[in-house]
What does this fold into?
Amino acid sequence: MAFQLILNVFIAVVWMFVSGSASASTFIIGYLIGLILIMMTRRFFKERLYIARLWAAFKLTLLFFKELTLSNISVLRVVLQPKMTIQPMIFALPTDLEHDWEITLLSSLITLTPGTIVLHVSDDQRTLYIHAIDVDDVDEAVDSIKHTFEKAIKEVSRP
Amino acid sequence: MKTNDVILQTTTKVVFFIIFLFSIHIFFAGHYTPGGGFVGGLLTTGALVLLLLAFDLKTVKQALPFNFTIVTGIGLLLALGTASASLVFNVPFFTHAFDDFTLPLFGVTSLHTAMLFDAGVYLVVVGAAITIIQSIGGDA
It folds into this structure.
């Protein structure tokens, strides 16, 4: 990803030298031309196009805001319920994320969505211990995190 | 017992730079807007303390191999030197001078010798605070 980004900036700078102007608009035009060139020659790169990863990161952000709204509403319902029918629970979430930043990002996303809090990361970084306010079924809770956040983070980090 | 600090350490690696950058900004802002050597120095100390909390004393000492007692000394020398430099020009002790210079990138900038004095204060604050924390935290 870094190589493609540097190449794109390099093409834009070369474009600025070729057209003999050092303004920001020339840089943007050169950058867009470089983007088209890199898209045309994408078979020569071992990794995905970096635009795809940026798009995945954008989708992860949207997903986060969607989950934030939905889980806020569900916590509001728990708070306003006259009877305490909740079932708090601490469960283990096995994860196959590898990098430190992926685990930090996943934990932050889980903690920022109301109703769930990451308590501890196991020493081998393979398990997250999560506290949830209201869980009917552990497998369901694990699956819902695995299928939303973990999948989206993997989509961002895949080379 | 050793626990897994992956979240704290990864976040620190990002947040440290933001705090440090802000402390530099606060230091240079001191002349016209709130800020200055003291708060700038304390913010830098705060960034270093965050490093000390996330990692351990030994790691931080290896990463930043400064003797902070000497940093305090350099700061005091800088402050005293700026104050007494006015004696050379035959004006009273602590008289400051300033002038406008044209610097590359910055344009016309007013440079004031009070900033050197502030840099001395900054170094004294950072050196003293980190010395206190390191000697309380360390074994010896």
